[in-house]
């Protein structure tokens, strides 16, 4: 799980960190394997997550405490896979990868050309986008909105990768933008209850902005939007009074 978390973070700084395509391909294999559906009891370990609170938590009253958290594999896997594909897509490397006839020079010996071609094939990508875009069941902690944020991160990765400007031939999973809006809304509402007003305010702003720019079938229900606006308004009032 921790490796996947590191991979996801690295994709946001891939160019600055000098990460080359040959460095991305081995991680694609890992992320793809971690994206499989949980099919049996043998896969139950993939539901495990890390959530640890500092020992001094009880001493820090009226302060926002952020626990150490690593999402379960079934969330991190597809998030990492989508993020890696985003990097390749922005470099216009997805289509060119399919034209390879031999392994690129410098590729890890544990990664084969066949694996690269499979991971970057349009049919495999479309299937991954469809599965990853399905709503994820959140098993969180009432003291933190992190679990909802982790699901929002996955939805955001799918939305970004499915952007027509990056991948005109990849159709986004059905209502994935709706899932992102509601995930952000859940983050905001729980954060507000926990008196994490800044987090609540900016999460609702993001949710509302995304909903405004969504197609009609992707929009959240009017009742949800009304509630998000209330959270944003009340959170801002608290922040302005500080």
Please give a handful of descriptors for the protein shown:
242 residues; mainly alpha; two-stranded antiparallel ribbon; 10 helices
Structural class: mainly alpha
Q: Quote the distance from N terminus to C terminus.
A: 38 Å
Beta-strand fraction estimate: under 5%
What would the average pLDDT be, to the nearest integer?
Answer: 82
> Care to count the β-strands?
2
Shape: globular
Radius of gyration in whole Å, from Cα? Answer: 19 Å
Low-pLDDT windows of residues: none
Largest sheet at a glance?
Answer: 2 strands, antiparallel
**Order of helical and strand elements:** HHEEHHHHHHHH
Number of helices: 10
Specify the helix fraction band.
Answer: 40-55%
Biggest sheet: strands side by side, in what order? 1-2
Textual characterization of the structure:
The protein is mainly alpha-helical and 242 residues long. The chain has a two-stranded antiparallel sheet with strand order 1-2. The mean pLDDT is 82. It is globular. The chain starts with a helix and ends with a helix. Helix content is 55%, strand content 2%. It has a domain at 1-51 and 65-135. The protein contains 10 helices and 2 strands. Helix 1 (2-11) runs parallel beside helix 3 (73-90) and helix 9 (197-212) packs antiparallel against helix 10 (222-241).
């Amino acid at each position: 799980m921790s490796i996947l978390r590191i991979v996801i973070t690295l994709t946001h700084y891939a160019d600055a960190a000098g990460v080359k395509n040959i460095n991305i391909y081995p991680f694609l294999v890992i992320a793809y394997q971690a994206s499989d559906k949980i099919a049996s009891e043998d896969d139950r370990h993939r539901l495990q997550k890390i959530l640890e609170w500092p020992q001094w938590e009880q001493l820090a009253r009226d302060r926002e405490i952020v626990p150490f958290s690593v999402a379960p594999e079934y969330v991190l896997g597809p998030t990492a896979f989508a993020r890696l594909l985003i990097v390749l897509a922005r470099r216009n490397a997805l289509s060119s990868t399919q034209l390879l006839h031999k392994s690129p020079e410098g590729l890890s010996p544990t990664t084969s050309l066949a694996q690269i071609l499979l991971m970057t094939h349009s049919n495999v990508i479309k299937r991954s986008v469809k599965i990853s875009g399905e709503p994820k069941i959140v098993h969180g902690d009432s003291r933190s909105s992190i679990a909802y944020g982790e699901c929002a991160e996955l939805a955001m990765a799918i939305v970004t990768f499915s952007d027509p400007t990056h991948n005109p031939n990849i159709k986004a999973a059905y209502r994935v933008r709706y899932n992102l809006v509601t995930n952000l809304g859940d983050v905001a509402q729980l954060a507000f209850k926990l008196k994490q007003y800044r987090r609540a305010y900016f999460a609702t702003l993001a949710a509302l902005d995304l909903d405004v720019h969504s197609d009609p079938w992707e929009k959240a229900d009017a009742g949800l939007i009304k509630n998000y606006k209330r959270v944003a308004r009340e959170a801002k009032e608290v922040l302005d009074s500080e």
